[in-house]
Write a structure and sequence with these properties.
Strand content: 15-25%
Structural class: alpha/beta
Low-confidence stretches: none
Distance between the termini: 38 Å
Number of strands: 15
Amino acid sequence: MNFDKIIERRGTYCGKWDKLEAFSGVSPDDGLAMWIADSDFETAPCVADAMRTYADHALYGYGFDEDGYNNAIVWWMNHRHGWEIDPDWIITVQGLGHAIGMAIDTWTEIGEGVAYFTPVYHEFRLKTLRAERRPIELPLALVDGRYELDLDRAAAALDPGVKLLLVCAPQNPSGRVWTKDEMRQIADFAAAHNLIIISDEIHADLVYAPAKHIPMDLAAPEHRDRIVTVTAASKTFNLPGLRTGQTIIADPVLHAAYKRRIVMTEYQAAAPGIVATKAAYTPEGEDYVTALCEYLKGNREVFDAGINALPGLSSMNLESTYLAWVDFSGTGMTPDEITNRIRKDAKIGGSPGSTFGTGGETFHRFNLAMPRSYIEDAVARMTKAFSDLQ
């Protein structure tokens, strides 16, 4: 794979670039799109080949190879993460957004609370609000530039109306990989407060050694009666536009409740997403992921070296994902001043940290899943934009 290849995405129904100006005021003509978690890399050759074969058939009727698709997921989870799952645990969904929305709908009522650790993926809050539920923030502790659980503080934020705990593992936006012990602590916390856990593990394949992702179900099997895992090939293989993901539920009671909601809405997976996922979760797909992680590691090193050289700026050590989390608190600037410099001076469309909830106010998130030349350009732009700090 040539991850250095520049691919023109403007004008190709690409939200990352075509909606850049609407999101940030930065023109895609001379700006850099580093906001939405979508990579600028071609997908794995095995996926592209499978999609070409499907398209060339030119007859797109009902049905798909459900057994082959489910078996591919089973193989991937076992081979990649040491997690043995049963194909009957798998419920196909229309991507992770759909999976989380359906979980909120299944296990909470209007007015009830949905809790999540912050700062975190902004859609946790937005999906909670759209469903007319109450978002409950559980702030993480920032200790020596690394997020830690603060479960005593979290417990104090809960009330009897909180029914669901959304967990981001690995964590977005910080790239933090929770250890097995931490995942167990989260599960114990949920059990103590009678919460159902929705574990968003979409970034699980993009982890940098020595960090290792442990699925929630594998870390705390004794709490399986409250664990729901949601995942997809979309971030790893750049397939979000195909809107396909998996909700994996071992507990029969939870599984039946969720499945009822899916059946009631008459949801059926679209065949192209099934074809792509089945092709991705193969040995050939794993070769692609290995090369991708190595390339992303290089991008991380280039970006961090440049950003950390700027006084007052600190890029958090990225254990997973391709989303850099930069702390600007050392500059003494307000969040608005930080965002204005990034957008107006550097002409970079990143994501302001405030959108990720409590604890993100002085941060900014930058997507590093781009050709290396873009990363080098971003560092040069940031260096110039914050040159007066040197």
